[in-house]
Amino acid sequence: MKRKKIKKFLKATSFAVIFAICCGIIIQPTENNVVHSVTTSELEEKINELKKQNEDLDNQISQIDADIADSQELQNLAYQKLVNQKEEIDYLNNQIYYKEQDISDKQKAIEDLDDSIKLKEAEIEDKKQQIADLEQQNKENIYKFGQIIRVMYITSNEDVFSVLMGSQDFNDLLIRTELMKNIGEQNERFMNELLASIDDLEEKNRQLADNIVQLQAEQKKLEEEKAELEAEKADLETKCAESKTLQAQYNSDYNTYSTQIADFEAKQDNLEYQKKLNASEVADYEEQIQELIRAAQAAASGDVIYDNGEWLWPLSSKYHLITTYFGYDSWRNGNHSGIDVGNSGINGANIYASKGGEVIVAKQSYVPGYSYGKYVVIDHGDGYSTLYGHCSEVYVSVGQKVNQGEIIAAVGSTGWSTGPHLHFEVRINGVPQNPFNYVSLPG
Length: 443
Prior knowledge:
- By secondary structure, the protein is an alpha+beta fold.
- The chain has two domains: 74-257, Orthogonal Bundle (Helix Hairpins), CATH 1.10.287; 303-437, Glucose Permease (Domain IIA) (Distorted Sandwich).
- The protein is built from four helices and 14 strands.
- The protein has helices at residues 2-22, 40-154, 160-165, 170-301, and strands spanning 25-28, 36-39, 322-324, 327-329, 334-336, 339-341, 350-352, 357-363, 374-381, 384-394, 401-402, 407-411, 422-428, 431-433.
- The strands form three sheets. Strands 3, 6, 7, 8, 9, 10, 11, 12, 13 and 14 form a ten-stranded antiparallel sheet that branches. A two-stranded antiparallel ribbon has the order 1-2.
- The longest helix has 132 residues, at 170-301.
- 23% of the residues are buried.
């Protein structure tokens, strides 16, 4: 009898509910703030605004694609310049290396010539000393010859003739004559040999002097060639320094374009993420409309009958650490529409239906960092519903009837979540209530 009265009441109120929906009066829930009533036209307006935003985002993304393409083209050009400049620097460095080798060879040749010149000069000095020695010998010889003549003069021989005339006999004359002759010939021969040696030494000195002049000319030529090589090397080093400056500039350009591309891609990622958020928000608005429509239809049909019995804790009794309570939360700087349960080891734990009813939301897709993530909403009849958020897995589907205590999902950290936990809500006509008005902590 009681059941029939409830059915009549539901039928009587179903028309009012459906009329309210048609008039656009529904409830918009969020996780962080206490919900408020809005009309479907307002929601549709928000949906259209979000879709318009996504169109604008698509245009911005397309423009960024063009900017990325331009930056990549400039980056590729800078890279090619870098490659060309590196090849130019390598070439110049090789040329500088070979010039240094040539300069080193020239310097070695100059030093060798310098050594040769020093040797020639030493030989000249040696020959000069030999000439001086020979001249001294010649002087000594002349002196000795003079002494002989002087002795002969002192012995009363006024001259050679008197020496000869003073001979005691013919034999003595012959002896004196031969003696004078021998002395003269020996002295002459000796002097001639000395003079020939001196002439030979002087000739060799002249040759050595000519050799020195020739070597000095060769040395001067080598020094000129070395100076020319050093000038060419200095020119190559200047060009190499200029190339390195260009290389540094091209490298800076390449890095600048790399940074630009990274910035563009980061901006593009943010825009893509905003698109996902907008799309998810649109889906949430549409899901809210469908949720209320399904709840109204269930109430009108009387399929879901509210059970006045006790509510069940939605987790195993060992999970009862409350990390965030219902109401104002300073960390969020706003209201929290449920309670968060987050014990250690809770990830993957079973989530149970707090009451029996019909699944009106079974969200499998989500945007990381946004909203409830994967979540389930169960309509319990008479305006009551429960929400189970941030699930890792959802085991039920929309329209499925579930019993109290039946496993419906697994604890996770999807959506806007900083770690594995269950976000649990109790709603009346879509408005979140303090869950502890209905459920109790285990133990």
